[in-house]
């Protein structure tokens, strides 16, 4: 009886030691932001500077990036001088033939969007970066007319790019 009571006490003490010595913090949105220090975010428009221009791309991308921060953080969006600042440009919008066939025609085409981003963290300058590129691509059957699938593919690539940028800026993996 005394032995099982001692084992119980040792077990409880070990659990308490483990519980107080390490803590795990997990947020479902993945953002690790110290809201006591970081309260605002400025996301500039990302102009389309790619050689091939899809007119709605700049607005689609910029708004999707802002929406990602609105949905997944408690940061207040401000027009200038935020605690976090994201700016950059869309620098690539390309179609590349893939999987050449016997008749020298491409069976697949790769669609790629590249964005150059500068990120400034006013509270922790070590986390800032400048001119970092993010790329997303997807292949599609060349028998499809690109103009018919362009908007849908662009939305998919934008979604991936926004997640990459969000991960690189406010997730601390």
Descriptive report:
By secondary structure, the protein is α/β, with parallel strands linked by helices. The protein has a single domain, classed as Lipoprotein like domain (Double Stranded RNA Binding Domain, 2-Layer Sandwich). 35% of the residues lie in helices and 30% in strands. It is built from three helices and five strands. The chain has helices spanning 2-21, 57-72, 146-170, and strands spanning 40-43, 76-77, 84-100, 106-121, 129-141. It has a five-stranded mixed beta sheet, covered by helices on one side. Helix 2 (57-72) links the parallel strand 1 and strand 2. Helix 2 (57-72) runs parallel beside helix 3 (146-170). It is extended and about 85 Å long. The protein starts with a helix and ends with a helix. The model is unreliable at 19-29 (pLDDT under 50).
**Main sheet: strand order:** 2-1-3-4-5
- Helix run count: 3
- Report the strand count: 5
Helix content: 25-40%
| Radius of gyration using CA atoms only | 24 Å
What is the count of structural domains?
Answer: 1
Secondary-structure blueprint:
Elements (H helix, E strand, L loop, with lengths): L1 H20 L18 E4 L13 H16 L3 E2 L6 E17 L5 E16 L7 E13 L4 H25 L3
Parallel strand pairs: 1-2, 1-3
Antiparallel strand pairs: 3-4, 4-5
List keywords for this structure.
173 residues, alpha/beta, Double Stranded RNA Binding Domain, 5-stranded mixed sheet, 3 helices, 35% helix, 30% strand
């Amino acid at each position: 009886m005394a032995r099982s009571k001692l084992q119980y006490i040792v077990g409880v003490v070990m659990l308490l030691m483990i519980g107080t010595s390490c803590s795990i913090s997990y947020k479902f949105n993945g953002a690790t932001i110290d809201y006591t220090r970081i309260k605002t975010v400025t996301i500039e428009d990302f102009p389309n500077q790619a050689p091939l221009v899809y007119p709605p791309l700049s607005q689609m991308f910029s708004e999707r990036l802002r929406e990602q921060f609105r949905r997944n953080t408690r940061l207040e969006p401000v027009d200038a001088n935020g605690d976090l600042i994201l700016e950059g440009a869309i620098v690539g919008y390309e179609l590349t033939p893939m999987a050449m066939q016997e008749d020298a025609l491409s069976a697949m085409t790769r669609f790629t969007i590249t964005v150059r981003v500068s990120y400034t963290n006013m509270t922790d300058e070590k986390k800032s970066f400048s001119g970092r590129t993010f790329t997303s691509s997807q292949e599609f059957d060349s028998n499809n007319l690109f103009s018919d699938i362009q908007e849908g593919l662009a939305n998919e690539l934008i979604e991936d790019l926004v997640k990459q940028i969000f991960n690189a800026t406010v997730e601390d993996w």
